[in-house]
UniProtKB/TrEMBL annotation:
Keywords: Repeat, TPR repeat. It comes from the Bacteria. InterPro entries: TPR-like_helical_dom_sf, TPR_rpt. This is Tetratricopeptide repeat protein. TPR repeats lie at residues 22-55.
Length: 332
């Protein structure tokens, strides 16, 4: 036995202990991130940062993971810390992207422009330009509506939303008409009004109403979604194609706008496109929208995902009991 112990001890003495460094943890974090194991990726990347607290590459990669899981404030805090210690230009674009997701469009625009000024041909230059284009598109639709009596507007918004989500078109019309009279600058009421008109039988008036709005604002997202839907229902393929093609190239920042596009694709039988758009939505922000569950489940069913369609439909019926009165995705 002593001879055996000597041999073992001799072998053990030759083993070189492996002490992981920051690059090891960073590589493991990137691998986990690429496999979409975000919780594990964050743990590995934090270990990398602990080893090299001022390494901008580690901090930026951790911020990217935070962005992916929706922790935009945490991501920007890391990136701001990097900018305080080093001139890592990529941070400007990454910060702009996070601000855009938070809906802080002026800040997003400022940082995107700063990136392009410092790196006009940088790795993120095209992304920054695209982001600015999307922000400009969103600005046209999402200007803050400043009112002395915002509470009154909120009551109208909630009432109209209630009827629109239940597809109670005739009940929605008088609410929206009053809303447009009291708040004439609030464009969303006009878009909802035209949709309620169309589905209550006033198709020609609805189409003309939206065409007039489109002349005033050719970039209006809601004009294109409504007109695509109207022309599809009227079997006007040429006009429908024109407006649906616009939507194929639009990827808004805000969840409400992303939902509107996803629903439009679903309602016009573009189920593959609709399904992929729904996948990008944050359910937690849209659980009060029965349209999310209705059209997501219908899209899932039509692309061959019946189990997912059923799960979505059952969850939707629990949150919005009136959905149970509808026929479900399998009959849509």
């Amino acid at each position: 036995m002593p001879q055996v112990e000597k041999k073992i001890n001799k072998k053990v003495s030759k083993i070189i202990p492996f002490i992981p460094d920051g690059d090891f943890y960073f590589t493991k974090g990137v691998e986990a991130f690429q496999n979409r194991k975000f919780d594990i990726a964050i743990k590995w990347m934090k270990k990398a940062v602990d080893m090299k607290p001022k390494e901008p590459l580690y901090l930026c990669q951790l911020s990217v993971i935070y962005t992916e899981v929706g922790a935009y404030h945490s991501a920007n805090q890391l990136l701001t810390d990097v900018l305080h210690t080093t001139n890592y230009i990529d941070c400007y674009y990454l910060i702009a992207n996070n601000y855009a997701h938070l809906g802080l469009l002026n800040d997003a625009k400022k940082y995107a422009n700063s990136y392009l000024e410092k790196e006009p041909d940088g790795d993120f230059s095209e992304d920054a330009k695209n982001l600015l284009h999307v922000i400009e598109f969103d600005d046209d639709e999402d200007d803050e509506f400043e009112l002395d009596d915002e509470d009154e507007l909120l009551i109208y918004q909630e009432t109209a939303f209630y009827h629109m989500e239940k597809q109670e078109w005739e009940e929605a019309i008088p609410v929206l008409e009053e809303m447009m009279m009291i708040f004439p600058e609030y464009a969303m009421a006009k878009h909802d009004y035209s949709q309620a008109l169309f589905f209550s039988g006033n198709q020609e008036k609805a189409v003309n109403f939206q065409l007039d709005m489109l002349k005033e604002d050719p970039n209006s997202l809601y004009c294109h979604t409504n007109l695509a839907l109207f022309y599809y229902e009227q079997n006007n393929k040429e006009a429908y194609t024109k407006h649906i093609q616009v939507l194929r190239n639009v990827y808004p920042i805000h969840e409400q706008q992303k939902l509107r596009i996803a629903v439009t694709f679903a309602r016009t039988a573009q189920y593959e496109e609709a399904y992929h758009r729904f996948l990008s939505l944050t359910k937690g922000k849209l659980k009060n929208h029965s349209s999310y569950f209705r059209w997501y489940s219908i899209s899932a069913y039509h692309i061959g995902e019946p189990s997912k369609a059923l799960a979505l439909w059952e969850e939707g019926c629990k949150r919005h009991p009136y959905l149970a009165k509808e026929s479900g995705p399998w009959n849509a």
